[in-house]
Amino acid sequence: MERTHYDSILDRSKRITWQDDCYVDLQSTTSSQAETEDLGWIQKHQDQLQSFITPSFLGEILNHMRNLDVLSSAQEIKVKEAGRLQDQINMLTTIVTAKDSQGSDVLQGFIESSDSQVAQLIINHDAMVKEHKEVLLRRYEQYRDRDSISCPRLNISSRTLLLVDGLSDLQQKEHDLMQVGVTRGEKRNHLRQLGLAKLFEPLTRVSMPPRVSLTVGVAGIGKTTWVRHFVRQWCQGIICTDINFVLPFTFAELNLLDKLSAERLVKMAFPHISDPSLVLNSSCRTLLILDGLDEFRCKLNFSDAAPCSDPKKEVPIDDLVTNIIRGNLLPDIAVWVTSRPRVASLIPGGLVDRVTEIPGFSPKDIEIFLNHHFSEKDFARKIWSHLESNKILMVMCYIPCICWIVADTLLYIMQNEAQETLPRTCTELYANFCSMKAELGEPRGREPVKMEQLHGSNRKLLGNLGRLAFYGLLKHKYVFSEQDLKNYGIELLVTQSSLGSGVLVREESTINTTYRFTHLTLQEFLAATFYHVSSKRAIFDLFSESSMSWPKIGFQNHFRSAFQHSQQAEDGHLDVFVRFLTGLLCSAAIKPLAGLLALGKDDGNNKTWAAGFLQGLLVSGGAVVSLRAVNLAYCLQELQHTEMLRSVEEDLRLGSLAGKLTRPHCVVLGYLLHVSPECSEQTNLTASLNASTVKCLLPQLLYCSHLRLENNHFKDDVMELLGSLLSAKDCHIQKISLADNAISNKGAKALSRALLVNRTLTSLNLRNNNIGSKGAKFLAEALKMNQVLTSINFQNNAIEEEGAQSLAEVLQCNRKLVSLNLCGNQLGDKGTVALAEALAVNHTLLSLHLQSNSISNKGMTALTKALRLNHGLVSLNLRENSIGVEGAKNMAHALHENNTLQDLDLTANLLHDDGIQAIAGAIKFNRGLTSLHLQWNFIKSTATKALAHALLSNSTMQLLDLQENNSLGMDGAIFIATALKGNHQLTYINLQGNGIGESGAKVISDAIRASASGCVVDI
């Protein structure tokens, strides 16, 4: 827009007068019309003056006003000494508006006559922003309906991004569906969530806003939808109001550009911005959005790109993007890049200030979507039930765009009763989707149109689309120009048919028009249909687009070739293609496409052959089960050859995999950990593994939630492997049990290194190993840093006093640990005293188990002193120690003051009657204890009487265990019966092994019937 346009907007005769300037001296009474107009100009531009005046421009203003004697020397000094730049500007406007109209006229005249960018922004900013927002809103309004398809029913305002620390190996190297299958759309608890409104804000008060932000997400997750939502929200003034200009671009738009400058690019995309330098300079906070890096035709080269810092200089488009991200070009503007993860990993980590990830649908999100998507709840219920029983389809639905494809296809089948059973594989589902899109465009009479009768143009279109999809897939090309379509025989008019518009998305911009498949998986499916049909008549290698290649004849040779290419592709980009290719050998998958593909009847021989071929690949792989190998199990699922899959799943469920984990079984187990939440949430490999099978399965064990590796005779060499497992960024393990193995201090050291970096593990069970005091010390050093683990079991590990002292140091500083099991570790009194000193300051540990640790009165005394100060511990296990009467009395004193402890276990100590009577005295007043275990303590009737009287006053005790005290007899029974008549909180009492006899039992049973029907008494 020309400057004259802005000048006309700001014409003095059209300005709105302003009345209430907060900076005006209240003593002033001048009220001429001219002054009111002058005051209005300053007020109207106050925000722009604050935002855009630079120190140098402020200096020019002061010099100009001093030269005209509008400002005195003293006033100039007052402005310069006002403090921050904004304070200086406030002081200047205060002084100017307090004067007569001359001061305001001089300031206004200087700014309006200046040719500087600062002056232009002050004058024209509001009008420029208003027009820019109007243009963006009009442009993005057309995408609303399309966004509802690509990210259906997704209320982005209520969703959050995940703040991640770089990209994992899985994200950098594997296919999108592999990534989604592993995470299952779930938000990882250890990751911070970040709302879209805070995406470009500092994370702390002392940090800086990010310059380069990278948002990653798999294809169809909604990256572009998030971008468009952000732009609309910004245009409406809802979020990020401190950003002056948002300049959104897609890499699909940039693909047809060759060489241009940054300013020319902005001018080309936004013709209404007449002077791009105004929005690209340092005075203006501008956000440049580069959406869809994975769709860029150029591979960014950050090491060899020629540096460029001139926004007017024309450079190749890839160098332009590289220099913008590097900060050589436009260093003062913020940049937001979105991409699929694998391509995003090509940007050096040091250039990116913030990485966020878009999470997929969770199972709950899928269910909500179905209920919202369908007006008839019965359809939603049936589809949800079908997804629950078909794990592979559920995995696909974690991606919102695929969720829409799945839901609409299943609905269409149910409404039209097109087949007896719903699709059970991805291939069946996509075949029905394409059939649906083709049939929707056909003229319909009273009778349903048979697929064999579909118009021939659809058959030709499907073939050409498949060829485009296949060779695009080989080239990692997912966005196509109009010329690309013509090159593959696809007429632009035909793309508007039901089939064409159903599988292709057309997008227009001011720069170009592009096409893409509705989703990457649809491109992969159509590629597979092309390959399937072509391989039955092709005489050359289809992976070579030219006819100059080695001869290759016969379907089986072409099928084998496809898998060779797939297994050799390090990034897995052909994984889903070969799944679909395998699935097309099933009659249920090919039937919906029979009319479109014009295939003859299949005798099933190829399906049988393919099953044998795939099983051969399972056996012949390397020593480690890679995701390429796991993809073979996915192919068996698509082929509906599932005998081995079902067998391994059943053995895993029953915990009976011992001796059965051959390499094919390991591959299938890896597959199950991907697609079955039940298998990954409870992975029981107890007594099933050795060092070689651990090494074989290692990459797949990453994706378990609860991993049980008990009784596998693991030694320290295996712990090195498991340490690398727990150290990986991709690790999803939350609980791991290594109980009953042969782990020593060396294994504990390997584990400790992993705990320094692991962010997912919350529970660690090392019961019945032999880490010793040295191993405990290694782990203690890690636990001082680790802020994730909440539960650790060190039972029977010979930790001894020295190990207890190391762990006590952990409790002094660690505030995440809530459960610690140190039973059977020979801690003695010295170790117990160290732990007690830590408990005096630690109020976050909830459960402490110290059974069988040779603790005497000395250790007990230290613990009771700590309990007087501790307000966190709720469960304390002191079974099978050597605590006597003195220790019991000290515990009684502590219970008078501590009302936090709920469960106290003093089984098999030496408390005797005197000790129990002291504890009974405390129970009268204690209001925290709910469970008390006193079995095997040589208690007689006198102590029982004291307990009974205490229970009459106690209103919180629910469980009392007095079994195996031998001497309670009839008197003890009477006392307990008395307690039952008065205390109605008790729900369980154990009196076994106390010789109360039949008479005593009758007394108690009568008391229960009369007053305590809710209490269970074991006699």
UniProtKB/TrEMBL annotation:
Keyword Amino-acid biosynthesis: no
Domain NACHT: residue ranges: 211-341
Entry-linked PROSITE patterns: NACHT (PS50837)
Cellular localization per UniProt: Basolateral cell membrane; Cell membrane; Cytoplasm
The entry's keywords: ATP-binding, Cell membrane, Cytoplasm, Immunity, Innate immunity, Leucine-rich repeat, Lipoprotein, Membrane, Nucleotide-binding, Palmitate, Repeat, Ubl conjugation
Organism of provenance: Oreochromis niloticus (Nile tilapia)
Membrane topology: Lipid-anchor
InterPro entries attached to this UniProt entry: CARD, DEATH-like_dom_sf, Leu-rich_rpt, LRR_dom_sf, NACHT_NTPase, NLR, NLRP_HD2, NOD1/2_WH
Name of the protein in its database record: NLR family CARD domain containing 3
Alphabetized GO MF terms: ATP binding
Superkingdom of origin: Eukaryota
High-level lineage: Eukaryota, Metazoa, Chordata, Craniata, Vertebrata
UniProt KW Acetylation keyword: no
GO cellular component, one term: cytoplasm
SMART domains: LRR_RI (SM00368)
Family, per entry: Belongs to the NOD1-NOD2 family.
GO biological process terms, semicolon-separated: innate immune response; regulation of apoptotic process
Primary location class: membrane
